[in-house]
Amino acid sequence: GWMEAGMKPDPEDGWMEPMLAEVMRRLEAHDFVSVEVTGEWESEYKLMRRLEDAGHRLIRVWLTAPEDEMVQRLKQRTGPRLAATEEEARGVYRRGAARAAREHWDLILDISGEPRSDDVLSKIGALL
User: Fold this and answer.
1) Which end of the chain has fewer CB within 10 Å, C or N?
2) Cα separation of 93 and 70, whole Å?
3) Model confidence over 98-118: pLDDT tens digits?
4) Measured at the alpha carbon of residue 5, what is the angle toward residues 11 and 19, in degrees to the nearest 5?
């Protein structure tokens, strides 16, 4: 909705500042907040560091799957500005995976194949 409200992403930090403000706003009312990022943009890691620097505990979870499977998922997304071409999807996957590989993660989950909600929830739940 930010784009519909006339906001534009910062050329360097993208949506980091409004995202940080929104997460902080929600943390005032909730003990836990979930934030999903692609892992492709440096500003997403900056957002995580800013939250940690503010004293919040983050549970960093990297959801991964083989490139071909993730490319198909990216190509099948629906909604405005969501679906990706083959080339865009491969770029997103490769940049995101390369950038994420340089980070610390509390949990790395292979989400390939059929959804396994119980398995995912039990592994994340063990970290809480």
Assistant:
1) N
2) 7
3) 999 999 999 999 999 888 888
4) 55
